[in-house]
Amino acid sequence: MDISSLVQKYKSEDKNGLWSKIGDVIDAKAGNWDRGVEGQNQELTQMLIYEYATSLEAITNGKLKAEFVVDKLASTLGTFRLGDFREGQDDNIKYDNQPVTSEAYKKNCRIDKHFGAHQVDYDEAGKHLYSIAMFDRTQEYQTSDGKVHTLSGGDLESLDDIRQTVFHECTHVMEKCPVKGSELKRSDIIQTRGNSTYINACVSADWTMEQYKEYIENIDQMLASQEEVLFGGISTIEINERKSPNRRIMHNQISEGATELIAKKVMQHLGRPIKEGRYGMQADFVEKVFASMGMDDGMATYLTSSNKIISYIESKNHDGKDVLRDSDSFITALGNFEGALSNMTRRTGNRFGPNFEKIKEEMKAFWDEGRNPEEKDIEMFFDKIDEFAGVPQEQIPYVKGMVNFALTYPERLQKFNKELNELFPPARTFTVKNAIETVKNNTDVTEASLQEALMQIKELAKNLDRITEGQKVESIQGNLKVSNIDETSRNIPQKSEALDGPDLDD
Known about the structure:
The chain has helices spanning 4-13, 18-28, 44-59, 66-76, 103-112, 159-174, 186-189, 209-217, 219-223, 253-270, 280-293, 295-304, 306-314, 323-348, 352-369, 375-389, 396-407, 409-423, 432-440, 447-463, and strands spanning 77-83, 94-95, 98-99, 117-124, 127-135, 140-142, 148-150, 176-180, 190-193, 196-199, 228-232, 236-239, 249-251, 428-429, 472-476, 479-483, 491-492.
């Protein structure tokens, strides 16, 4: 992986000293940020941060400055690793109350759950920090039982795999946004629905149920203070002792979609190929949300005030519908079903993968028939699943309900996408280019077409952050002259009525 030519290119084009600034940040980290993959070019991390920061400035049309991105990462990203967390140096970073250098962590995350990378929060010297590790998929590890495992990870020989993964994880850091409690409303932090209370703020995953309940009880005190409330993207924590008496229920898949969408936008700006298949539906949902705000505004808001994205989505709620939670439930339903069946199958000693792949192919064949499932169809698929999964008695209603959901999925998906398109219509965009096209598309350039074009330009000017010196619009009878106006513009959302969100109850 030779990056020397890219490094030289970025050094030569850097007019504002950003490249050098990133180098100074890495020096100041004193070994807490890896400079590159071991045995390869040690300017890799500097290059990745440079690409990420400058691309974010470009794709947000300058609403997010590259220097701001570097400063935020410098102040909050405490640890950055390419390969694995370092034993003896990163032991203070914990996940599920286990050090990230421990055997328990490796078994949980890299043997059982196959993590390719991980962003983990931690506290150091009284400061809340974030860590990133992109793991090496060739790394071998011997557990205490004497077994040797090849751990999960990414391809550290592929620059594009490193890019897309690191950009995704850096976005997880950028999405963390502290807001003073006095600037928030109660509904910004918590929402109640049925027996569940949802915490929109970013709080520890390792708290006891009593600590979560205490946090909820102290919301009003927090709102009256200057205490900072941390938000972490579009993640919410569900507290419901009936469903999960001892642990919180994490809903972070929409947030994963947002980070992956932004990582892909950065890759596209760099002209690099994208690895598809990562959080596809989640990213599609967020893209609709951002596009309805104006894509550049949506991305910039997400990385500076992510709580506002949650509030924006929740503004679409009505008639008891919860767009964020209902969408999360729909998008993750089939994946959760697969996970539940995998756990059931593990207890039987049968092989899950081949059996479930066969079921999926048969379900796809059923979709091609284009008919609604009958009771006999549901029973037939349930019996086939039960053969390898050994469905426990108490889980039979859930599995049959999910079989029905899966068999009717194409119709449900069509309805879901239709509702999202109506909830989040693309923002109306005013650009100078639009105004020019208005005139061009009229065979006879009339006073009316000129007035329509000028109206579009006025709307554009009204909503731009600023009109720089030398940018002007001149109207001359019979002609329209546009002088030195950047065609990049702010997008203006239109109002739309909220429709019913996806319903998984039937």
